[in-house]
Specification:
Number of helices: 15
Helix content: 25-40%
Largest sheet: 9 strands, parallel
Bound molecules: zinc ion
Strand content: 15-25%
Length: 460
């Protein structure tokens, strides 16, 4: 079957097969096929591998990493608002409601202009790939055409993407200039978007997937939530929405339905193995059991939470309860497009929760014991955790997994990465997580396609 295989990589690999555990594989050959899947992962000194290396080298399809370069799995971002890319880093001192109404909705309304959408979305996808994000789950806007442009952009640039046309129809919460005129129209356009993505030329392997996307319960009528829940059941598509992000949203749903956000989403048929809930900061233990029972996942967005959530996400409690969790940038609620950045902040947030933040409180009242996570767990969330939450085989160098990868070059210009020969695999991954910047990400591959960078020198 070698004729199907198009590229091999001779490299030092780093990945986290288990939460909190790192595996470093030196001088290892990864062979991946035309379909993007990894065929084999073998030590270079294993019997027969030398002949394989020579064969790929002769064909000009061997990528050889140099000393000081590491191959890591590509990063998974479970929560991105694509239209908010121009707003990154702005207005983060406002409360969520004001941020939405005075900044975010007016910006999102501009995507009625297809040219504006095409320009922004090209910049967004380039920007995320440059930060090592090989899989992204996107909210679009209410505009079908602009969201189709986002899907074409991701496919054209070969970023693995799950994309939703946003549905929001409640006149009490959505401004007149930016809302669906009816539940029926929102559902019809959601159906049209699903059909469009599934029929997109070049998307036969499902690199781009459609997502049913009620913005959040406060912006949707009961009729819309019911119909989108029914569509989720019949289509089998992924679902994304926000859940218990802030005190305001959490209270709003309790007041409207008398049950929690999670319970209401379940009632409308919007919780499944393919659901990703953004944030979940204020979910209770019963909610966590409900989410775990459905196999749904949570997009933990640590940076955005600092600005808008009113609380630190109880990450370790949620993980220990068996809920799938990955990381989200929440562009532009978060100020960084980098999932490595968000991984660092996931560690930071968990430590703040454990130690407490109010010095006026006595230590026992201030702290929440057993809350912190380590850097290896944060990297696991950024790769494997996100893949599991999405039910995608990404995040590991294993046969059958997709070859989505980034090359970390310690010798990049202005690099802060200084790895010593005596460093253990744990120390190397910690340094990469905390100290690498965008310039260290030299090359990126998605589904075994080289999507960013200069490539490395093929062996002769
Ligand atoms: Zn969001």
């Amino acid at each position: 079957m070698l004729w199907l295989v198009d590229r091999a990589y001779l490299a030092t690999l780093l990945h986290t097969p288990l939460r909190g555990r790192v595996e470093l594989l030196r001088d290892t050959l990864v062979v991946a096929g035309d379909d993007g899947a990894i065929v084999s992962v073998q030590a270079a000194q294993d019997p027969g591998v030398d002949a394989l290396i020579r064969r790929f080298a002769a064909a000009g399809t061997l990528v050889t990493l140099r000393e000081g370069q590491y191959l890591l799995p590509g990063l998974v971002d479970l929560h991105v608002h694509a239209p908010q890319w121009p707003q990154l880093g702005l207005a983060l001192d406002l409360p969520l409601e004001e941020w939405l109404q005075t900044h975010t909705f007016p910006l999102e309304a501009r995507y009625a202009d297809a040219n504006f959408a095409a320009t922004v979305y090209a910049s967004l996808v380039d920007g995320l790939l440059a930060n090592g994000t090989t899989t992204a789950m996107y909210f679009g806007t209410i505009h079908l055409e602009a969201t189709q442009i986002l899907a074409r952009t991701c496919l054209g640039k070969a970023q693995r993407a799950l994309i939703g046309r946003v549905a929001m129809d409640d006149p009490a919460q959505c401004p007149a200039y930016y809302r669906d005129p009816s539940a029926e129209l929102a559902v019809a356009e959601t159906r049209a978007f699903i059909a469009y993505v599934e029929a997109m030329p070049g998307n036969g392997r499902g690199l781009i997937r459609p997502v049913i996307t009620p913005r959040f319960i406060p912006s949707c009528s009961d009729a819309l939530l019911e119909q989108l829940g029914a569509l989720a059941a019949t289509s089998g598509c992924h679902v994304q929405t926000h859940c218990s992000e802030s005190d305001w949203e959490h209270r709003f749903v309790l007041d409207r339905f008398g049950i929690s956000d999670t319970a209401a989403l379940e009632k409308f048929g919007l919780l499944s193995r393919r659901t990703i809930l953004a944030h979940g900061n204020l979910v209770g233990d019963d909610d966590l059991d409900t989410i775990a029972a459905h196999g749904a996942g949570i997009a933990h967005c640590p940076l955005s939470n600092v600005y808008f959530s009113d609380a630190v996400f109880p990450l370790r409690r949620v993980l220990d309860r068996g809920v799938h969790v990955g990381l989200g940038s929440d562009i532009a609620g978060g100020s960084s497009p980098s999932i490595l950045d968000n991984a660092r902040h996931a560690v930071l947030a968990s430590r703040l929760l454990e130690s407490g933040v109010d010095p006026a409180l006595a230590r026992p009242l201030r702290r929440r014991p057993d809350s912190r996570i380590d850097a290896l767990t944060a990297f696991w969330l950024a790769t494997v955790g996100g893949g599991i939450a999405l039910e995608l085989n990404v995040g590991l160098f294993r046969p059958g997994y997709q070859f989505d990868a980034m090359l970390i070059d310690t010798a990049a210009p202005a690099s802060n990465l200084r790895i010593a020969p005596s460093d253990t695999p744990e120390q190397i991954l910690q340094k990469i997580l905390y100290e690498s910047g965008r310039s260290n990400i030299r090359d990126v591959w998605v589904a075994n396609r080289h999507v960013l960078g200069q490539g490395t020198t093929p062996a002769s």
